[in-house]
Every structure is written in structure tokens, then in C-alpha cells.
Amino acid sequence: MASRGDYSYLVIILFAALLLLFVPVALSTIAEEQDSLAEGRRNNLFQDILKEEAVARLEELGKVTDADNYLERTFLSPASKGARDLLCSWMEDAGLRTWVDQMGNVHGRVEGKNSSAEALLIGSHLDTVVDAGIFDGSLGVVCAISALKALNVSGRSKNLKRPIEVIAFSDEEGVRFQTTFLGSAAIAGSLQSSVLQISDRSGVTLQDVLKLNSFEGTEESILQLKYDQQSVWGYIEVHIEQGPVLESLGLPLGVVKGIAGQTRLKVTVRGSQGHAGTVPMSMRKDPMAAAAELILLLENLCKNPDNFLSYDTNCQGFRGESLAGSLVCTVGEMSVWPGASNVTFTVDIRTMDNMAREAIIFELSKQMYRSCEQRSASCIIERKHDAEAVTCDPGLGSQLRTAAYSALKRVVGEIPDEVPFLMSGAGHDAMAMSHLSKVGMLFVRCRGGVSHSPMEYVLDDDVWFAGLAILEFLETNM
């Protein structure tokens, strides 16, 4: 007959067996529930920060303007100071260390595990054109801050293998001083000190404006802004597409494979201001008619370059297909002054092939001079601006494409098409930053391809997708 002690021993054995049987199951269930809750919190966090908060911040930033009835925020204007203060507060909210450099660029940095490692720079610009939309430039800065805030709040920013730095460049559009990339070119080390003497329309020099804003405004201060190439791992930028391709494809995100090179010309046609009724048609030297012919010549040449150019087959030439899909030629400002004796207009020529662009400019100039000579008018062609084409880093492009696809898949499930590679016909800070490091860009769909306008519009969900893509990129590669 078993004793009471024996029964107690059996109960203990049985209880232990039950524990061994059920505890792992219970722990597994608890772990699954915790993972589920964490995933739920994570997804809610992403939407709260990367969508609702990001959209609200874009709208708030869009109200910081120097004009009464439209958005205008130019280099070191009063509104730019307000924008810098907002961005600093948002960067600090994301756990970033912040500062403003001697060109007015706003920086926010998290060091990660290894503060001495090469840093990833993420940026875009805080300035605008006149009568602007709220997404150009600002979208890239806000998405980057939001992605880093999501990492910080979820406790994952400490896992970053390298420093991440967000930069809001003070000037990309070049509205105030008619020279682009003041902010990013200073950091890349390609800004010449002679730029300090450039004046705005009121006659105030860049140096004066810097000093009025408590910056040094010296050649030394510009040189000190340059980043050491050895300290930078790469640069990425989020930007609205400013074109209709993504919308036509029904996709919110695309990866940029390259940025077209650009040349701006100023063409002046001079003739005679003959009386409208007394000078016969055979003796007239009307510069307006000559200018109209030159503009049509430009359009015809750029629509049908094969009719004007011959292509070399050796290694020093370029092929006709290098112009396909990337050559765009447009006329910007046009002025008739004084009277009708002088006509001035600007020409913008862009293509991904630098040699092809030079060939277009050479042929255009030759044809324009010939046309003016036939009309007994004089023609002056001045070259006002040049920017070399930039090829984005294929490795960064591939990583951004994977991140964009993963972001879309997390929210909408399977997507019918691959994230496309696109060419950028517009210039971006990435062009200046390519002098410092490898660059990559992510385009975001915008309605109708409209930009530089109050009609500029990006869907709230597309803002979210862009932030998620940056977050995916950071978690996967950084």
C-alpha cells in the first residue's frame, strides 16, 4: 500500500510532466501573440508616422512662405529661416542630432553602432520656385526624417551599421541668385568662391546675404563645408517625378537610372524696327519673324535629329539611339525690347549623352546663324549654363528598387509590374552630390506630371509608400 509520501511524489511527477507538456506550447503562444502585437504596433506606427504625420508636415511646411497668396521660399529668405526651424524640430523629434551649416543647409544625424563608419546621406531641398507646390524638395526631406523616426521609436535605430545623415539643402532651384545647387554644391566641394559676389535682383550679393543671416560668408567658410569623400558611403534622394510616366504605368514609385545633362543658351536676334506700313516685305529685317523661325528650327532639330546629324561609328562618337527618349529642347523666357528691333529668348537642351548634347548645340548654332544671315539679321548665341549628365549607381539603384517593391508588397500585396527604371530630365541635388559620392534616386508619382505649380499633388498613400521604401532600404542595407 502506497504511503502519503509516495502519493505526493507521484503528484509532483505528474505536475512536472504537465508543465513539460504545456509550458512550451504556452510560451510559444505567448511569443506568437507578442510578435503579432509587435507587428500590429509596427504597422500602425508606420502609417501614423510615414503617412498621416508626414502628410501633415508637408502641408505645414507648405504654409511657410514669403508671399501672401502663394508659396515662395528662396535662399535665406525669412521663410527659409522658419522652414529651417521646423525641420530642426522634426529632426530632433526623430532622435537626430541637428545643426545648420554656413550655407544654411539643415543637418540631422544618427550615429548608429559605428560613428566612424562611412555615412549614408539622404537629402533634398527646402527652397522653392515662385508660386510653387508643396512636394518638390520637401517630400524627400520629410520622408527621410519620418523613416528615421520610425526606426527610432521602434528601437531599431541603434542597430544601424553606419551613420545616417539627413540634409535639407538651402538652395537647389537657383531662384534668388540664378545659380543652382548652392547648398549641395558646397557640401560636394564643387562650389566656387566667386559665387559670393553674385547679386540678386535687388543688388545684394550672396556674401552680403550670408552675413546678414549670421553666417561667415568667406572663401574659407565655403571650403570648410566640403565633406571628405572617405567619410561618405553614398547619397540617396526621394523626389516627385515631375513627369507623367509613373502615373501612366499605374505605379507609385520608380528608380532613377540617370539625370540628363543640361545646357542653357541665350539667343539674341537683332534686326531693324521698320515702320509697319512703309517698309516693303522684300526689304524688311524683322527680328521677331527670324526668332520664330529659329524656335521652329530648334523644335524640328530636336524632334528629328537624324535629319541633321551624322553619327560616328568609332569610339570617339556617339550613336543615334543615345538621343532616343532623352533629348528634350525647349524655349523658356522670351523678351522683345526695345520695340521690335531686339528679340531675346532662352533655350534649354537636355539629354543623357553629353557628347550628343554638344553635337546638338553645334548643329543648332550653325543652322541658326545661317537662318539669321538669310534674313539679314544678326544672331548672338551665349552659353549661360552647363551641367554634365549623371548616371546613378547601379548597385544603389538595385537596392532602392528592391526596397520600393518590398514596401509596396507590404501594403497592397502583389503588384502587377516591376518597379520601373526612369530617366530624370530635371536637375536634382543628386547631380551636385555625384561629385562627392555614388548617388541613387527614388521617384514618386505626381498627378499629371505637374510640378513647380500649386497644382502639384501626391497621393497620401504614395507619401507613405516612399517613406516605407526608405525604411526598407535602411533596414535591409544599413
Automatic annotation (TrEMBL):
EC number(s) from the headed UniProt entry: 3.5.3.9
GO molecular function term, any single one: allantoate deiminase activity
Gene Ontology biological process terms from the UniProt entry: purine nucleobase metabolic process
Record bears the keyword Electron transport: no
A Pfam family: Peptidase_M20
Signal peptide, first to last residue: 1-28
Cofactor(s) needed by this chain: Mn(2+)
Catalytic activity: allantoate + H2O + 2 H(+) = (S)-2-ureidoglycine + NH4(+) + CO2
Cellular compartments annotated: Endoplasmic reticulum
CC terms in the record's Gene Ontology section: endoplasmic reticulum
Keywords: Endoplasmic reticulum, Hydrolase, Manganese, Metal-binding, Purine metabolism, Signal
SUPFAM superfamilies on file: Bacterial exopeptidase dimerisation domain, Zn-dependent exopeptidases
Acetylation as UniProt keyword: no
Similarity-based family: Belongs to the peptidase M20A family.
Subunit structure: Homodimer.
NCBIfam families per the UniProt record, alphabetical: hydantase
Name of the protein in question: allantoate deiminase
